[in-house]
Amino acid sequence: MSLIAELRLTGAQLVLRPTLRAAPGMTLEREWATPADRASDPVLFVWASGGDFDAFEGEIESDPTVNDHELIDRADDRRLYRVVVNRDVTVNPGPIDRATGASRLSIETTVDGAVLKLRLPGREALTEYIHLLREQGFEVELLSVHPADDEQGQQYGLSEKQSEALAEALESGYFEVPRETDLETLAESFDISEQALSERLRRGVSSVLEATVGDGPGGESESATAASDGGVDDRDDD
What we know:
Elements: E1 3-10, H1 17-22, E2 27-34, E3 43-49, H2 53-60, E4 66-75, E5 78-85, H3 94-100, E6 103-110, E7 113-120, H4 123-135, E8 139-147, H5 152-155, H6 160-171, H7 183-190, H8 194-212, H9 220-228
Helix pairs in contact: 3-4, 6-8, 7-8, 8-9
């Protein structure tokens, strides 16, 4: 099953990172990108918003990650720029995408780093994607991951972490009789403790049961489950 993942990347190799330091309130959203050929650097089209445009445009002139730029359009409080990337000092993500079968869905960059949303064939591809980024010098934080076709999470009131844990447990045979995997193995795949994963699975199962055979969200059994778990919301666990 394919996955949708969000990663936060930080590092000097990020395009326009020096410019964003001069305009820290600015947010960049990638609209389009054209790949490089052997004779040219790649071109990005990015919308900038929320910051000081004078500071942004003043700094971009000397940004080492950029070879050229042009203001293309203005719309309310946003501006669209065409940016020619200096690939000599930045990382080309294309080979990483091809090696892992990844499809980049969106990129949003601020002074704190770039949040990358992408589709991957599965967990092994995600692990390899993160590994390859770190090999290139990026610091990578996994913000969220869930099955690409997960519409049931919203339907049953599941958090992304609960939905992901239940999907992995089901696929790995945790709910089979006899079980085909154990809690320790599953917990290692999520890099959390057995207790944390056990609680996450119990809350997820409780939400599904409440939505299907119980009294619905907010019913008596849901309150009882929250009380038995010490009132901890799984959306804030590790």
